Amino acid sequence: MPKEHKMSPRVENALLIFYIIVLSFPFIFGSNGFLMIYYYFKYRKKQVARKGELKDFPVVTIQLPVYNELYVVNRVVDAICAMDYPKDKIEVQVLDDSNDETTSILAQKVSEKAREGFDIKHIRRGNREGYKAGALKYGLAQARGEYVAIFDADFIPRVDFLKKTLPYFADRKVGLVQTRWEHINSNYSLLTRAQAIALDGHFVIEQQVRNKAGFFINFNGTAGVWRRSCIEDAGNWESDTLAEDLDLSYRAQLKGWQFVFLKEYTSPAELPADVNALRSQQFRWTKGAIEASKKLLPRVWKSKLPLRVKIHSTVHLSAAMVYPFVLLIGILQVPIVYIKHSGEYDPTFMLMSGFIFAFFGSFMFYLYSQKDVYKDWRRRIYLFPVFMAGSMGLSVNNTKAVIEGLLGWKTEFVRTPKYGVTGKQGSWADKKYTEKKVNWVSIAEILLAIYCLAGIIMSIVDLEIAAIPFQLLYFSGFGAISYLSIKQAVLARKTAVRFTPKTEPVVQNIGK
Fold first, then answer.
1. Which helix (H) or strand (E) holds 349?
2. By the 8 A CB rule, do 197 and 363 touch?
3. In contact, 223 and 151? CB cutoff 8 Å
4. Sequence-distant (≥ 6) Cβ neighbours of residue 228 within 8 angstroms
5. Entry pTM
6. Which of the listed residues 7, 115, 130, 363 has the most CB atoms within 10 Å of its CB?
7. Cα angle vertex 418, ends 211, 268, to 5°?
8. Strands 119-123 and 60-66: what pairing?
9. What are phi and psi of 174, to 5 degrees?
10. Where does the pLDDT of residue 496 fall: very low under 50, low under 70, confident under 90, or very high at 90 and above?
11. Closest CA to 213 of 138, 313, 283
12. Where does residue 46 rank: exposed (0-12), middle (13-18), buried (19+ CB within 10 A)?
């Protein structure tokens, strides 16, 4: 039986209106999943680009931007030098901005490869001006290659990478060839499996569909090859955003350059194995996207692009804006359940139930991303609720990134630490780069988890059963992210050891 009102009708009406507005934004972005699936089926059999023949071997500069990556740098250098491509046609630039033992490890490795006859250079700038974008631009000025391949330190490019990507540049309009990321440690933990689902959604559906449907795609910062003249024509690398890859991608495509995304060809890489590394990665990606959207959206709408491309580019560039609304929905759950229990707004809540439509859009989006590339997709998609809970749990972290991006607060480029974790082997806990501090975001997440638990209890008492699954996702997300963050920071402090520089074991290159 409905309980007696303790909240004024004016406050209730204001909260309901605000809640509907807040729900509208995730609804729009979530419903975009249906549109992507529509295009996915429409263009499924379309070829992305004309593939030519690699009759000769152009000079390729391979850039490896590095900052404090002592656990994985030897692995990526060995992989690059194992590529099946004429040795005299490859120039390797190790763009090392490190300020730790990574520099001495690289000096030894570069000297070793130089003695083997590779054109490999250990390039030090003496500062981190412009961060990754600054390093890439600095190296490009000295590069001799007609094409520029870029790999982050945690990647293990396949031996046939250049022979598989370069033929697409037969079309003189092609400025970039991007390959799909593969995950060498997706089975390491529940955390890495959830990350794999998120990234597969981006690569298998978003990148593929956008490319085939004629929308703009983005360079993912690594595992791709640029035509050098494309980079220079687009204005070169710029460091005024934390998403230098997204920024250059749009500037190049606005100049008329075409991009090619290869879904069927993958570049293996390591996923963040601890939640604090994931936090820093998500923060940088989110804030960088907001900074890039502020910079690029006016140019998109001033251009002569078709309206459909402008609209889709707007959704693409502003997608990170959804996080503050996801957070607000979680906070508003408790008062909204209280209002619903009064029984006076049943028609309004019946209307609001339509917002669940967006949830199914997101589910279909990730379902087909798994079904497209994995035989065991049924087993993988079971983790969709875990992925959803994790996204909700990271909403505090990412909302902070959105606010800072909108306000124009500048922060340094914080790279995501990697530890050489392959498969289920390896550990992050005793490594040098693990986060050992607990910040206020984790405390806020704990408080929100307690708040959501109170909401669940209230829903059970009031028999508002329909609200419980949604509240459980928020409670699980906030609780798990905060718990893992604090637990891993404490564990990192306990197991911290002083690193002694030594040559890393060579990890065998992943073949064709």
1. helix 346-352
2. no
3. yes
4. 61, 140, 143, 145, 146, 147, 148
5. 0.92
6. 130
7. 40
8. unpaired
9. -80, 125
10. low
11. 313
12. exposed
pLDDT tens-digit profile of 282-300?
Answer: 999 999 999 999 999 999 9
* 58-83 tens-digit pLDDT: 999 999 999 999 999 999 999 999 99
List residues with catalytic annotation: 97, 245
Q: Which domains does the chain have, with CATH numbers?
A: 9-40+321-495 (no CATH), 60-297 (3.90.550.10)
Dist CA 493 CA 431 (whole Å): 10
CA–CA separation, 375 and 395 (whole Å): 32
| Contact between 158 and 244 (Cβ < 8 Å) | no
Can you tell me which residue has the tokens 């690699």?
54
Q: Give the closest residue to 373 by CA, choosing from 115, 123, 196.
A: 196
Between the two ends of the chain, the Cα-to-Cα distance in Å is: 66
Reading phi first (left if > 0) and then psi (alpha if -120 to 50, else beta), residue 142 is in: alpha
**What gap in Å lies between CA 244 and CA 139, rounded to an integer?**
15
Give the pLDDT confidence of 396-414 residue by residue, as tens digits.
999 999 999 999 999 889 8
**How far, in whole angstroms, is CA 267 from its chain's centroid?**
15
Distance between CA atoms of 52 and 308, rounded to whole angstroms? 30
**CA atoms of 375 and 204, how far apart (whole Å):** 14
Give the whole-angstrom CA distance, residue 212 versus residue 43.
Answer: 6
Q: Tokens standing for 378?
A: 């049924």
